[in-house]
Amino acid sequence: MKNVFVHPTAQVETVDVGEGTRIWAFAHVLPGAHVGKDCNIGDHCFIEGGARVGDNATVKNGNMLWEGVTLEEGVFVGPHVFFTNDLYPRSQRLPEVRNRYASKESWLVPTLVRRGASLGAGAVILAGVTVGELTMVAAGAVVTKDVPPHALVVGAPARARGWVCECGRPLRFRHGDSTCQSCGAHFREEGKEIRKIEASRQG
Amino acid sequence: MKNVFVHPTAQVETVDVGEGTRIWAFAHVLPGAHVGKDCNIGDHCFIEGGARVGDNATVKNGNMLWEGVTLEEGVFVGPHVFFTNDLYPRSQRLPEVRNRYASKESWLVPTLVRRGASLGAGAVILAGVTVGELTMVAAGAVVTKDVPPHALVVGAPARARGWVCECGRPLRFRHGDSTCQSCGAHFREEGKEIRKIEASRQG
Amino acid sequence: MKNVFVHPTAQVETVDVGEGTRIWAFAHVLPGAHVGKDCNIGDHCFIEGGARVGDNATVKNGNMLWEGVTLEEGVFVGPHVFFTNDLYPRSQRLPEVRNRYASKESWLVPTLVRRGASLGAGAVILAGVTVGELTMVAAGAVVTKDVPPHALVVGAPARARGWVCECGRPLRFRHGDSTCQSCGAHFREEGKEIRKIEASRQG
Fold first, then answer.
1. What is the pTM of this model?
2. Does residue A201 surpass a pLDDT of 80?
3. Residue of B26, B92, B93, B101 for testing the chain C interface, max C β-carbons within 10 Å
C-alpha cells in the first residue's frame, strides 16, 4: 500500500487501503476490508472484512464497521456510531439458534450510507437502511428506516426535522426555494425531496 | 487456560477463562473476571474483576463489563452496550463524596442478564435491573427496570413492544397462543408473561 | 511527569499530566492535552490536544475528549460519553466543504463541564453547551442546551427532572427548602436555581 500512514499500535490486515489514508492508534482493519483514498480512520476503530469505506471519508474514533456496511465517498461518521448487521441478533453459540447462523444469508442485512452524508456522535443505524446523499443524522438519533438525500433527522426513532445544505447548515424554504445562508447554494423542493440548482441553470 | 485464543494485542490478566473462548484485539480482561466456555469477546472490550460471563456468550466489540455485571449462558451483547454499576455516580476523587466511595456496599449495584437474552447496539442498562431470559432489547433502548422473559423492549425509557421467540423473531398472539412463523416454536400467554410449550405437551 | 502511572499499552504524548494521575490500557493522550492531578483515565480513552481535564476527575473507559472540551475539577464522565465539537459536521475531505475546514474558527465549538458534574453512561453532549456544577446528566440523555448547577436532566433531548445533592442523590423540596436524606446537606431554591446553605448560616 503506497503512502498509507498506519499508527504503530494499529493492526491493519487488509491490503486494500487507498493512497493518502491514515489509520490511527489501536485501530484494527481486518482482511477483506476496503478503505478508499485519503480517508481518516480514528483511534480504536474496527473495520471488518466485507465492510467498504469510500474515498475521502472521515471515520471518527471508536467506530465499528461490520461486514455489510458500505460508506460511499466523503461520508462523515461521528464518534462511536452504532452500525448493526442483524435484525434479530442472538449469540450464535446459543444452541437454539445455531442453525440460523449456519449461513450468512439467513441473518446478514446490509447498510448503505451515500456520498457525503454525516452521522452524528452516537447515532444508531439499524441494519437494512439506506442513508441518503449529504444527509445529516443528528447525534444520538436512532435511524430505523431510509433517509432521503439532504434530510436532517433527529431523535429516537429518527424523524425528519428539515433539510440541510451540502455544507451541513439547515435550509429554510420559501415557496419551494431555498438559498443557503452560509454558502449560497440554491435548492428547490421536488415532490418529497429537494434538489440542488446549479448556478448555470438559474434565472 | 486450555484452548483459549488470546489475540497478541489483548491483555488477559484473569486465569478464569473457559475452554474454546476467543478474546480479540485490544481487549482487556482484569484479574478476578470470569469468562465461560466457547465465548467470543470482541475487540476493545473491557471486563473488570468481579464481572461474570456465562458459557456461549457473544460479547461484541467495545463492551465494558463492570464489577457487578453478570451475564448468564448464551447472552448476546451488541456493540458498545452501556452497563453501569452506580445509580448516583460522582468522581470518587471529589472531596465531597469520598466517604461514599470508602466501601463498595454504599454504591455498587449489580445487574443480571439472564440466559440467551440479546442487548442491541448502544442499549443502556441501568444498574440494578434484571433482563429476562431470551429477551430482546432493541438497539439504543434505555432499560430502567426489570424486563420479563421473551419480551421485546424499545425506546428511552424502554417500553414493552411485544414478545420474541427464542430464535429472536417477533411473535403474534391469537387467543393467547402463538406459533413462530420462522422456527415453529409454540408459546402461550400466562398472566403477564409467556411460556414455551414443548412439542411433547401439545394437543 | 512525577508519580504518574501509565499502563504499558497506553500512548501518552503530552507532558502535561498532574501528579498521582493514572492512565489505563490502550488509552491515547495527544500532545497538547492537559490532564490534572489525581485523575483516573480509563481504558480506551482518547484525549486530543487542546482538551483539558481538571484535577480529581474520573474519566471512565472509552471516552473521547476532543479539542474544545474542558472538564473542571472532580468531574465524572461515565463510560462512552459522546462529546462533539462541530455542530454541522462533514467529512473535511469532501470537496464541497474543504473551505469550511480551512481554519478552526469556522467550525470548532467548545464545551464546558463545571466542577463536580456527572455525565451518565452514553450521554450525548452537544458542542457549545455548559453543564453546571454538580449536575447529574442521566445515562443516555442527549444534552442540547446549558444545564444549571445541581440539576438532574434526563431523556432525549434532555429535560430537567429535578435537583440533586452534591452527593448525587435526588433532593425533594418543601416550601423552597430541602435537606438531603442521604448526607444531610441543606439547599434553598433561589429563582430558577438552587443554592447550598452552609451549616454556619443555618437557623
1. 0.95
2. no
3. B93
